[in-house]
Amino acid sequence: MSLVIAAIGAKALYLLYGWLASAIIANYVSERKGYGAKLGLALGLLLSVIGAIITLLMPARRDSRWKLQGPFGSGGGKTVAEARAEREAEES
After folding, report:
1. Which of 40, 73, 67 is nearest to 54 (CA)?
2. For residues 46 and 63, is the Cβ–Cβ distance under 8 A?
3. pLDDT tens by residue, 59-92
4. In whole angstroms, what is the distance from residue 45 CA to residue 35 CA?
5. Among the listed ranges 26-30, 35-39, 49-53, 77-81, which one has the minimum average pLDDT value?
6. Cα separation of 42 and 55, whole Å?
7. Which of 41, 48, 65, 92 makes a 20 to 30 Å CA pair with 31?
8. CB distance 57 to 66 below 8 Å
9. Cβ(22)–Cβ(49) under 8 Å?
10. Cα–Cα distance list, 29 to 1, 6, 20, 42, 91 (Å)
């Protein structure tokens, strides 16, 4: 009787990497769109690739970093706090 240590296989390892990558993507996008990291992490872990797609399709909130700075944060523009302060000053 021989002991098999590497019975998982490469395909299962790649599926695990894909699952974790989708959780990371969903977490990042959800936080940028203003919904918080917990929602994105839950969608990414529970629904895998579909959860990452759902977070990409969700509309961004009004003062989210996604709308103010763009998807990757290189937009330069103003911060979320500055945008909220300007909006509150206009409403007053």
Report:
1. 40
2. no
3. 999 888 888 887 887 656 777 778 778 878 888 7
4. 16
5. 77-81
6. 11
7. 92
8. no
9. yes
10. 49, 35, 14, 12, 29
- What is the distance between the alpha carbons of residues 4 and 7, in angstroms, rounded to a whole number? 6
Q: In whole angstroms, give the CA distance from residue 52 to residue 9.
A: 25
78 CB contacts (<8 Å, ≥6 apart)? 68, 86
User: Domain spans of the chain?
Assistant: 10-59, 61-92
For tokens 């940028």, name the residue.
32
The rounded Cα 35 to chain-centroid distance in angstroms is 9
Rounded Cα distance, 31 and 26, in Å: 8
pTM exceeding 0.85:
no
Residues 72 and 17: their CA atoms lie apart, in Å, by 22
Q: Looking only at Cα atoms, what is the longest distance across the chain?
A: 79
Beta-carbon contacts of 31 under 8 Å, excluding residues fewer than 6 positions away, are: 37, 40, 65
In the block, tokens 């994105």 appear at 40
